[in-house]
Amino acid sequence: MRTIAVLAMALAAAPASAEEKLNFEVDKLCQWQFENNSMDVEECKALEAEGKSYVAAHEATIAPERRAACVAETLSYAGDPGFASYTVYSACLKDGPGSL
Fold first, then answer.
1. How distant, in Å, are the alpha carbons of 5, 32, 98 from that of 69?
2. pLDDT (tens digit per residue) in 50-74
3. What's the confidence (pLDDT) of residue 94?
4. pLDDT over threshold 50, residue 5
5. How far apart are CA 50 and CA 95, in angstroms?
6. Could you tell me which residues come within 8 angstroms of residue 18 by beta carbon, excluding any fewer than 6 positions away?
7. 10 — phi, psi (to 5°)?
8. Which listed site, 21, 62, 68, 70, has its alpha carbon 20 to 30 Å from 78?
């Protein structure tokens, strides 16, 4: 019985997935990039799609500590537009926090 209680507590304390913490809204992010940085919307979407595919393929293999650091870094970059970037998140997962 104690084992079940410990397991239940561990599951309840488990961090949410990056998808739950990060607000990925590519269309809104790319429109913000266009309006504020003159970045082409289609180019932005292509970069985000590439980043999203990397995240989908590799996120589960990244150490939890690195994943958590990358979520924090991605959130810090999301401050201006309010939307997270798959490009930023995937670069961090690939190269480590502080690599941008």
1. 29, 25, 10
2. 999 999 999 999 999 999 999 999 9
3. 95
4. no
5. 15
6. 55, 59, 67, 70, 71, 74, 89
7. -65, -40
8. 62
